Amino acid sequence: MTRLRGHEDAWATWRGAMRGGRMHHAWILAGRRGLGKAQFAYRAASELVAEDGHEQLPATGHPDILGLTPLAATEDEEKKRLEGKAFLAKRNISVEQIRQMQRRLTTRPTMGARRAIVIDAADDLEKSAFNALLKSLEEPPQGTFFLLIAHQAGRLPATIRSRCRILRFADLPDELIDGILVEAAPDSSNEERRAARMAANGSPGAALAFLDRGLGNVQHLFERLAGEGDADLALRGQLAGEIGPRPDREKIAAVLEAARMVLVRALPDAEPGRQRRIVAAHGKVSTLIGQAPVYNFDPGILMLEIGGLLASTADPRDAAH
Fold this sequence. Notes:
The protein is an alpha/beta fold. The protein is built from 14 helices and five strands.
């Protein structure tokens, strides 16, 4: 795990609330995926439950820090998780997980006066789980604090948002992301890190995912598609070859987000006609991002579609549409 960097404003707000003596019982940590919100949440939880005069224990395995994430999808995937291997998780945090957490809250904290519940991510709660969680937010047990990680805070029910204090996380600057990439991947080249930064546009987690999967050439093709068009489909053919025949969901998610960020970066400097095309393409790519966790895309067809959307934003004299 890389060292947590940035987010000084969030830390100042959090630690100021702790010093104030009237700590709000529920917080939403809001911001794009990959900004380090989970690392922040567990470090903040560790500070919260620490007792004066006692050594501050790490959050992992701490009896008074309870983390809720989607469970492994199957028994075989659970075995992978226990072995420390990559595993496929369910799409949602279930209502039963919330109820199990609530049963824990009927007892006192183990080591001190405070307990922290980290939900990663609250976006992934089942509808019935939201309703169950609401009961705990309305009547929190003494000394219990909730940290709800949200990649899209607007998707949370208003009843949940109204009972939480929102702590917002901003995108990180390129120079900070580059430092993270150098630390995490010291053998990466300047060009590989540039491609990862461009794809991530402020999200160190997205940059690391992009770099880990060797998608630098994909970023280069995306930039060419948006800038030159693709009249003979050659670039789209190269794109399909780069992705391969059986990409996993994480790789598809990284590719889709990179395509979206190419459009975001291109928008401010585009002339009005091209801006309209970029906005239209961005909407369609965003729809694909929303479908990615659920749909089983054919990789070749998906790359043709993404490439076509990027090419559609190029100068009409060069685009293949």
